[in-house]
Design goal:
The chain is of the alpha/beta class. About 20% of the residues lie in helices and about 20% in strands. The chain is built from 6 helices and 13 strands. The chain has a 7-stranded mixed β-sheet, with no helix packed on it. Strands 8-9-10-11-12-13 form a 6-stranded mixed β-sheet. The N and C termini lie far apart (about 45 Å). Bound molecules: zinc ion (2 copies).
Length: about 260
């Protein structure tokens, strides 16, 4: 295989004065998740950490105004595309139901031939393009060997659940338990601005609802709950941000598809 080198590996986008969106454009869309960085007066927060193909911490540190503050890495759930670089952070939050998987995740490969066909058909049926031979189409640096990719585990330093508060000083968000796509998935809701971090419960792309560990009736309850929140903007686990009108369309579309409206 010959791949071009993509430097920098991550794409960085400023969403507002305290919020950054970081993505991995050279990862197949199925596994290209959003990493959000929220800067607070007393602490900073990284929501999810990508595939762990290239070091994430140096980029995050460059975006922070004050590196003396605590830096929290919150994993919304423990699918490979959300926890890859969690081990680079000293403070790690996850829901109790996903604690074990964060500490010792299932091994993962970047070679598509290693992904079970049953899983691939779930992705295709959901609406994603077919997999590439490898899950990446470029290398993060010369000499990187995708065959040697390892998904590293890291123990949570704290578990968080429904009703907990993530307190960054001048920015506080409520933890929402959003099961369905995974048992212990969490989202965050910042009430003053109506900002929802919806993880893989809701984003503006094909939702994945029928794989291992997924539960359709839980997922439907989660979507109904999100529809009833006073949301202004949604930052999902994948794809671009969107507003309340689009949120309602997505929820209606999936509840109808599942005949759970
Ligand atoms: Zn995801
Ligand atoms: Zn996921």
């Amino acid at each position: 295989m010959t791949f071009p080198i993509a430097e920098p590996w991550y794409h960085t986008e400023s969403l507002d004065r305290r919020l950054w969106r970081i993505t991995e454009p050279h990862v197949h869309p199925i596994f290209s998740a959003n990493i959000h960085l929220v800067l607070g007066s007393e602490a900073d927060l990284v929501i999810d950490s990508g595939m762990g193909i290239a070091p994430l911490r140096p980029l995050v540190d460059r975006l922070r105004d004050d590196r003396g503050k605590p830096l929290i890495c919150l994993s919304t759930h423990t699918h490979v595309d959300h926890i890859g670089a969690a081990h680079e952070f000293d403070i790690r939050y996850v829901h109790p139901l996903e604690r074990q998987e964060l500490a010792k995740p299932q091994p993962y490969s970047l070679n598509s031939a290693d992904i079970p066909p049953s899983l691939i058909s779930i992705f295709i049926e959901a609406g994603y393009e077919p997999l590439w031979p490898w899950l990446i189409d470029a290398l993060p640096y010369a000499g990187y060997d995708p065959a040697r990719y390892v998904l590293r585990g890291s123990a949570a330093t704290k578990t968080i659940e429904e009703g907990d508060l993530i307190d960054l000083g001048d920015w506080q968000a409520q933890v929402l338990h959003l099961p369905g796509h995974s048992p212990g998935q969490i989202g965050l809701f910042h009430a003053p601005s109506g900002t929802l971090f919806g993880a893989d419960a809701i984003y503006d792309g094909p939702l994945i609802y029928s794989g291992p560990g997924m539960n359709l009736s839980d997922y439907a309850s989660t979507l109904r709950r999100l529809r009833d929140l006073p949301v202004h903007v949604v930052h999902g686990g994948h794809d671009q941000a969107f507003g309340k009108v689009r949120l309602d369309v997505i929820v209606a579309q999936y509840l109808a598809l599942w005949q759970m409206g």
